[in-house]
Design goal:
Strand content: 15-25%
Order of helices and strands: EHEHEHEHEHEEHHEHE
Structural class: alpha/beta
Radius of gyration: 18 Å
Number of helices: 8
Number of strands: 9
Length: 260
């Protein structure tokens, strides 16, 4: 996609990252900015969004931050229109916004918790991808990157809605990849392993979860938690010309967790 000498450069591209104001999303936003992309961060917490916006502006790329709750369907189209008005046509969409509700299992999980998780992950990915793809088709190019998980493949007894949503994202990624390939739009997913973020802090730091933490470290061949910045490289790669012949793939970034 890039006309520069580096196949990993994103200069001249516009990238939208949902949930781009913290954790993995923030690292992806900064990573793509360093590769030259203009960045739109779509997220709920305005204070954190403004902090990331300051970091993006320091890198020197055009950037905006918009308040968006991805579960509010009526607001999604307006948000994408605002991005295109401010920065230009969207070249890269990163569906990263997420929530993990530790309900204790299907017997305990409420309908509201289930709906919130599915809406945040799976439904928002479908709806935002539909909006972005409609624009990308007109220009015969584009990249959609969805955040899956190791729990796309493994059952999550304590949070079944999360596992179900992430499993659905893998299949949605494949389906969109087949449909959109003829339009030169690549659709891929990243499946992070155990990454040190605010969302996973309880499993790392809470003494009540110490045995679970030991299991994570024992199962991960790398022997450690991953860092959010280690997801950014995979995202930049999938957004770049270097990945123009890759579509429908789910790339694990998990320190080997899924192979052990």
């Amino acid at each position: 996609m890039s006309s520069t000498s580096s196949p990993f450069a994103l200069s001249g591209r516009v990238a939208v990252i949902t949930g781009g104001n913290r954790g993995i999303g923030r690292s992806i936003a900064l990573g793509m900015a360093r590769a030259g992309a203009a960045i739109a961060v779509l997220a709920r917490n305005e204070e954190k969004s403004n902090q990331v916006l300051t970091e993006l502006q320091a890198i020197g790329v055009p950037a905006i931050a918009l308040h968006l709750d991805v579960t509010k369907r009526a607001t999604l189209s307006h948000a994408m229109t605002e991005v295109e008005r401010a920065l230009g046509s969207v070249d890269v969409l990163v569906n990263n916004a997420g929530v993990a509700i530790v309900s204790g299992g299907v017997l305990n999980e409420s309908e509201d918790d289930w709906d919130t998780t599915i809406d945040t992950h799976l439904n928002a990915t479908f709806l935002l991808s539909k909006l972005a793809a409609a624009s990308m088709v007109k220009r015969k190019r584009g990249k959609i990157i969805n955040l899956a998980s190791i729990y796309s493949y493994f059952g999550a007894g304590m949070l079944p809605s999360y596992s179900a949503a992430k499993g659905g994202i893998v299949q949605l990624t494949k389906s969109m990849a087949i449909e959109l390939a003829v339009h030169n739009i690549q659709v891929n997913a990243i499946a992070p392993g155990w990454i040190a973020t605010e969302m996973t802090a309880m499993a790392r730091d809470n003494p009540d979860w110490s045995e679970f933490n030991k299991m994570i470290l024992a199962r991960t061949p790398a022997g450690r938690w991953g860092e959010a910045d280690e997801i950014a490289g995979a995202a930049v790669f999938l957004a770049s010309a270097a990945a123009d012949f890759i579509t429908g793939a789910t790339l694990p970034v998990d320190g080997g967790y899924s192979i052990s």
